[in-house]
Each structure stands twice: as C-alpha cells, then as structure tokens.
C-alpha cells in the first residue's frame, strides 16, 4: 500500500485515497457512464421527433443522422459537476462565481447551438450570443491580460484594458467556432475534445489551487468519452453545434480560469499549444477562403478542413479520427512539457488517454459488427 501511494505521489497525486482525488474519479465516471447510457435513449427520441442533421457540404453523412448528441454531453457534464460539488464543495467565493459564469455561458451556447441545429440561425445572431457569453466571463474576472503575453511591450492601463477585452472575446469566440468547424468526420471532435480535456485535467491537477478547473475538466472529459462510444465511425449520433459549442467554449473558458498558468507570461502560450489543432485548422481554412475571394469565410462550408484533407488521403473515417487524435495528443504532451509537468506524469497521461480511446473505439466497432450480423441473419429467421 505504501509503494502504491508513493507511485501516486510520483505521478502528482498527493493522496491516492483522499477526498480530492476520489471526487475527480467519481466526477469523470459519472459523466462518462451517464452520457454512455443516456445517448441511446436520446437517440430514439431524436429519431421520433426529427432532430436530425441533413447531408450538406460539410458533413459526410448521406442520410439524416440524429444530431442531439450535444444535449447528452451537456447533461452528463452538468450532472457530474453537481455530483462533484456535493462531494467536495469549492468554498472560495470568487472561484464559485467564475465557475458559475462558465456553466451559464456554456448553457447559453448549448441552447443556441441546439436551436441552430434544428431550425437554423443567422451567422450574426450566433456571433452575438457568442460575444455575450465571452463578455459574461470578462465581467466575472476571466480575461486575457495583454501585458502578460511574453515578448510584447507593456502598455498603459488605458490601452491594455480594452485590448485585453478584445483578445478575450477573440479567444472565446474564435475557439468556440474552431471546434465547431472541426466537426465533419465521425469521432474527430469527440476524440480531440477528450484528449484536450484530459491533458488540461492532468496539468491542472499538479497545482493545489486549480480545484475548480479540475472539476470542470473531469466532467467534460468523461462526457466526451461516453459520447465517443456512439460517435466513432459508423456514427449513430452526432453532437451538432450544441456539443461543439460546449467543448470549444468550456475549454477556452477553463484556460482563463488558470488551468495552465505557471507564470503570467505563459498564460496564453500553453493553451495555444494544447489547442493547436482546431486553431490551425480554422486559420488555414479562413485564409484559404479569403484568398479565393469569399467575403464571409465562416459562412461558406467546404471540404478544405484538415480532417477533410486527411480523409481524402486515408479514405477511412476511422483512420482519419485516429490520426487527428494522435496529433492532438502530441500537441497536448508538448503543452504539458512547456507547463513544466514531469515526464512520468506526461507519459502516464498519454498512456491513459490512448487506452481510453482504444476502449471506446473497440466497443463501437464490436457493437457495429454485432448489429451487422443481426441484420444479415434477420431474413433467415423470418
């Protein structure tokens, strides 16, 4: 028992049987199990009421596919956070307010995303709501400080304050849309969301004052894994804008909560490394569309995203997802190294992520084979 505790401490776990670590495990498992079990029932209801994503230029499905997965992810996330709060209340008042601000902003974007999935909203209305959700964080003390960005000059407060607000809005809105634009191949956003959430979770857990970030990330990570069980190709449900907005907004907001701060100067560099895949994808898409003369680059879907390019080379949605998971994990481990996390923790995190992804992918492939076998044998039994 002593050797096990010593190993845990070597991996950054102060008390293997303590309330803090157990609450994180319970939060993760609650989110994962709830989402895993809830999705089949939600899918049945979505099929009945017609909540489905029609084939379009961005997606690869050739027939309507239930698109309410984001509601299940959100439900699993919220339930797990409630459980975590019951197990280990966060007593710091300012942190409570900031966490509630993140949850409120995420709820607002999930609602708007779901309405857009089912009925369609104009790009301007979606943008306005995203800006409002970003402002909600700013007024509660969550923002990027321009003067904390390394290698840039220190500006007077009269200039720094509005510039910092602009950068914060750009970070929140940009990442929210970046994750949404990646959602074009089965399993990509769910897997990348799980990788990034778990990497940030492992990083935040190294610091005693990051309890709020750990709780949110544990819930988001578990919900992503539970959803991925049903979304790995061939997908039975997709998350839609509601789920993509939840991942993008929450990850962007939690990074401002202090998850990755090991010094004021590196507060923006590390999350950029961990979230490099969606950021680079959106950047190259926007530049490419502007170069082709498209005035509204976010309002003209095409197949120039990284996942589309990888899919064209692999001709396999499964291989495409695995490749992008690997890239996201590599970026995450690099970000952990910049954070100063020890190599045993980095390696252990990478192994844990790989095992979890293999497990849910294997379960989905196995379930799909069983479904195919039943369909093939059905006429013989008739």
UniProtKB/TrEMBL annotation:
<feature type="transmembrane region" description="Helical">
    <location>
        <begin position="268"/>
        <end position="287"/>
    </location>
</feature>
<feature type="transmembrane region" description="Helical">
    <location>
        <begin position="68"/>
        <end position="88"/>
    </location>
</feature>
<dbReference type="GO" id="GO:0044038">
    <property type="term" value="P:cell wall macromolecule biosynthetic process"/>
</dbReference>
<feature type="transmembrane region" description="Helical">
    <location>
        <begin position="242"/>
        <end position="262"/>
    </location>
</feature>
<keyword id="KW-1003">Cell membrane</keyword>
<dbReference type="GO" id="GO:0005886">
    <property type="term" value="C:plasma membrane"/>
</dbReference>
<keyword id="KW-0460">Magnesium</keyword>
<feature type="transmembrane region" description="Helical">
    <location>
        <begin position="158"/>
        <end position="175"/>
    </location>
</feature>
<feature type="transmembrane region" description="Helical">
    <location>
        <begin position="211"/>
        <end position="230"/>
    </location>
</feature>
<feature type="binding site">
    <location>
        <position position="241"/>
    </location>
    <ligand>
        <name>Mg(2+)</name>
    </ligand>
</feature>
<dbReference type="GO" id="GO:0046872">
    <property type="term" value="F:metal ion binding"/>
</dbReference>
<keyword id="KW-0808">Transferase</keyword>
<dbReference type="GO" id="GO:0036380">
    <property type="term" value="F:UDP-N-acetylglucosamine-undecaprenyl-phosphate N-acetylglucosaminephosphotransferase activity"/>
</dbReference>
<feature type="transmembrane region" description="Helical">
    <location>
        <begin position="187"/>
        <end position="205"/>
    </location>
</feature>
<feature type="transmembrane region" description="Helical">
    <location>
        <begin position="321"/>
        <end position="338"/>
    </location>
</feature>
<feature type="transmembrane region" description="Helical">
    <location>
        <begin position="127"/>
        <end position="146"/>
    </location>
</feature>
<feature type="binding site">
    <location>
        <position position="180"/>
    </location>
    <ligand>
        <name>Mg(2+)</name>
    </ligand>
</feature>
<dbReference type="GO" id="GO:0009103">
    <property type="term" value="P:lipopolysaccharide biosynthetic process"/>
</dbReference>
<keyword id="KW-1133">Transmembrane helix</keyword>
<keyword id="KW-0812">Transmembrane</keyword>
<dbReference type="InterPro" id="IPR000715">
    <property type="entry name" value="Glycosyl_transferase_4"/>
</dbReference>
<protein>
    <submittedName>
        <fullName>UDP-GlcNAc:undecaprenyl-phosphate GlcNAc-1-phosphate transferase</fullName>
        <ecNumber>2.7.8.33</ecNumber>
    </submittedName>
</protein>
<feature type="transmembrane region" description="Helical">
    <location>
        <begin position="344"/>
        <end position="361"/>
    </location>
</feature>
<keyword id="KW-0479">Metal-binding</keyword>
<dbReference type="GO" id="GO:0071555">
    <property type="term" value="P:cell wall organization"/>
</dbReference>
<keyword id="KW-0472">Membrane</keyword>
<feature type="transmembrane region" description="Helical">
    <location>
        <begin position="20"/>
        <end position="39"/>
    </location>
</feature>
<feature type="transmembrane region" description="Helical">
    <location>
        <begin position="94"/>
        <end position="115"/>
    </location>
</feature>
<dbReference type="Pfam" id="PF00953">
    <property type="entry name" value="Glycos_transf_4"/>
</dbReference>
């Amino acid at each position: 028992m002593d050797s096990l505790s010593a190993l845990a401490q070597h991996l950054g776990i102060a008390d293997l049987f303590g309330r803090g670590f157990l609450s994180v495990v319970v939060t993760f498992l609650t989110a994962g199990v709830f989402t895993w079990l809830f999705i089949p029932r939600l899918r049945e209801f979505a099929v009945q009421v017609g909540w489905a994503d029609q084939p379009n230029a961005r997606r690869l499905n050739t027939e309507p596919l239930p698109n309410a997965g984001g509601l299940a992810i959100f439900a699993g996330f919220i339930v797990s956070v409630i459980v975590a709060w019951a197990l280990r209340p966060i007593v710091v008042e300012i942190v409570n307010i900031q966490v509630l601000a993140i949850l409120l902003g995420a709820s607002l974007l999930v609602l708007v995303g779901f309405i857009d999935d089912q009925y369609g909203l104009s790009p301007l209305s979606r943008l306005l709501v995203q800006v409002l959700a970003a402002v909600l964080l700013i007024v509660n003390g969550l923002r990027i400080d321009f003067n904390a960005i390394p290698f840039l000059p220190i500006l007077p407060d009269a200039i720094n304050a509005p510039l910092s607000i602009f950068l914060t809005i750009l970070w929140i809105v940009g990442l929210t849309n970046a994750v949404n634009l990646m959602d074009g191949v089965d399993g990509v956003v769910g897997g990348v969301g799980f990788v990034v959430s778990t990497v940030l979770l492992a990083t935040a857990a190294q610091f005693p004052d990051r309890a709020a970030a750990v709780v949110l990330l544990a819930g988001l990570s578990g919900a992503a894994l539970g959803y991925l069980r049903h979304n790995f190709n061939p997908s039975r449900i997709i998350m839609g804008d509601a789920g993509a907005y939840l991942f993008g907004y929450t990850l962007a907001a939690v990074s401002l909560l202090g998850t990755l701060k090991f010094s004021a100067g590196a507060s923006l560099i590390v999350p950029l490394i961990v979230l490099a895949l969606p950021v680079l994808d959106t950047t190259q898409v926007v530049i490419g569309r502007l170069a082709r003369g498209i005035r509204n680059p976010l309002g003209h879907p095409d197949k120039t995203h990284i996942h589309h390019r990888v899919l064209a080379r692999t001709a396999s949605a499964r291989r495409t997802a695995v490749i992008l998971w690997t890239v996201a994990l590599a970026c995450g481990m690099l970000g952990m190294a910049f954070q100063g996390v020890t190599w045993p923790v980095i390696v252990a995190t990478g192994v844990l992520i790989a095992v979890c992804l293999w497990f849910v992918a294997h379960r989905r492939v196995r379930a799909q084979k069983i479904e195919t076998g039943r369909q093939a044998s059905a006429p013989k039994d008739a």
